[in-house]
């Protein structure tokens, strides 16, 4: 793990991206974050090594060009990224989406919270666990889900 944790957010909604980045800065200023508007952009950046290998990937489901499910499947098929924890980060709260996320290898399915403070708290928990190298422990996180 790098000295500075690095997150990758893939989300096509500009407001959600801005809110995520703002909440992450409030949660832990040491974490860097690359933001991509769609899965194809994220994959291109990963393959070209334009960005550092992320410690955690936050992936929306409904994306243009390639869905979050397709991107998750791609990540889990590639040796370089199959062990990177992926958190599906969506407005959906359907139990079927949570099952699909689990079946495809996501660490966690997290429904975008309505309260900013819940997002800050969640990101702080993720950052702390990344820094401790215990991010897989976060799989049982249930607050705001």
Give an account of the 3D structure.
This protein is α/β, with parallel strands linked by helices and 145 residues long. The chain has a single domain, classed as Response regulator (Rossmann fold). It is 41% helix and 16% strand. It contains five helices and five strands; from the N terminus they run βαβαβαβαβα. The chain has helices spanning 14-27, 39-47, 68-77, 95-104, 116-131, and strands at 6-10, 32-36, 56-59, 86-90, 108-111. Strands 2-1-3-4-5 form a five-stranded parallel β-sheet, with helices on both faces. Strand 3, helix 3 and strand 4 (86-90) form a beta-alpha-beta unit. Helix 1 crosses helix 5.
Write a concise synopsis of the structure shown.
The chain is α/β, with parallel strands linked by helices. It is 41% helix and 16% strand.
């Amino acid at each position: 793990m790098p000295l500075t944790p690095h997150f990758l957010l893939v989300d096509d909604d500009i407001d959600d991206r801005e809110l995520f980045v703002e909440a992450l800065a409030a949660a832990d200023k040491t974490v860097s974050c690359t933001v991509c508007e769609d899965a194809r952009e994220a994959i291109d950046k990963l393959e070209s090594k334009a960005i550092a290998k992320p410690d955690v990937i936050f992936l929306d489901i409904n994306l243009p060009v390639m869905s979050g499910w397709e991107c998750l499947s791609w990540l889990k098929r590639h040796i370089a990224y199959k062990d990177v924890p992926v958190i599906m980060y969506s407005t959906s709260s359907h139990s079927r989406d949570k099952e699909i996320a689990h079946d495809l290898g996501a660490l966690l399915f997290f429904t975008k919270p309505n309260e900013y403070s819940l997002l800050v708290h969640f990101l702080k928990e993720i950052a702390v666990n990344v820094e401790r190298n215990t991010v897989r422990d976060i799989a049982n996180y249930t607050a705001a889900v």
